[in-house]
Design brief:
Strand order of the largest sheet: 4-10-9-7-5-11-12
Shape: globular
Number of strands: 12
Structural class: alpha/beta
Helix content: 10-25%
Distance between the termini: 11 Å
Radius of gyration: 17 Å
Number of helices: 4
Length: about 210
């Protein structure tokens, strides 16, 4: 049963969304300095690399990252390949996709090739109208292979609000370079951060091929 690690490694110098905290990974103690153990100090934002957005990211008083349902984060998922020439995922594109009885949708776009570069503003994104289509289909989770599912500086956050207001989990920052379109089992577990705004957390995400 092949397992695909679709997590982007967290490292200094990796792309971060414009305005988000940078990444610092420093030694706190080190065997090389005579300390009794290696201990690293980590400093980065909750939406670094592969991460999960909770409703509290954009909606005050709603569910935080530590309260997300594991049922939504683990289960069958369909990977949909979006052609490289498509920069906006709209309702017409979704209408051509087979989404019958699909509870988790992951979009593999040209974005997966961007992880070797600095932050790109022209990433492929999901339009609010398409997000509404997924909500109406009672999708539990939507994933995409860049740092935001929404158009850069959209000015309205309607894609996020459409999904999160209906408790649809958003997974961002995936790397699907080695994943073919089709059906898989998704396992995506964000860090269970109990303090702060609860807006999101980095996650380890993998896909497993389904046994027929």
């Amino acid at each position: 049963m092949p397992i695909y690690d679709i997590t982007v490694p967290i490292r200094s110098g990796m792309p971060v969304y414009e305005g988000d905290p940078g990444i610092e990974i420093q030694p706190w103690s080190a065997l090389a300095k005579g300390d009794s153990a290696n201990v690293s100090f980590l400093h980065f934002g909750a939406h670094t690399g592969t991460h999960v957005d909770a409703p509290a990211h954009f909606i005050e008083g709603t569910r935080k990252i530590d309260a997300l349902s594991l049922e939504a984060l683990i289960g069958p998922a369909r990977v949909i390949r979006v052609p490289d020439e498509v920069s906006e995922i709209d309702p017409d594109f979704l209408a051509a996709c087979d989404l019958n009885q699909v509870e988790r949708v992951i979009f593999h776009t040209r974005n997966s090739s961007f992880w070797r570069e600095g932050f790109r503003k022209d990433f492929t994104h999901l339009l609010p109208e398409a997000a509404k289509v997924l909500v109406d289909r009672e999708v539990k989770l939507v994933g995409i292979d860049y740092l935001s599912i929404e158009k850069f500086h959209s000015g309205h956050h309607r894609t996020h609000l459409t999904l999160l207001s209906k408790d649809v989990v958003i997974v961002e920052g995936l790397n699907l370079s080695d994943v073919a379109p089709g059906d898989y089992e998704l396992i995506c577990l964000p860090l269970k951060i109990a303090d702060g705004a609860g807006d999101g957390a980095p996650a380890r995400a993998v896909l497993r091929t389904l046994v027929s």
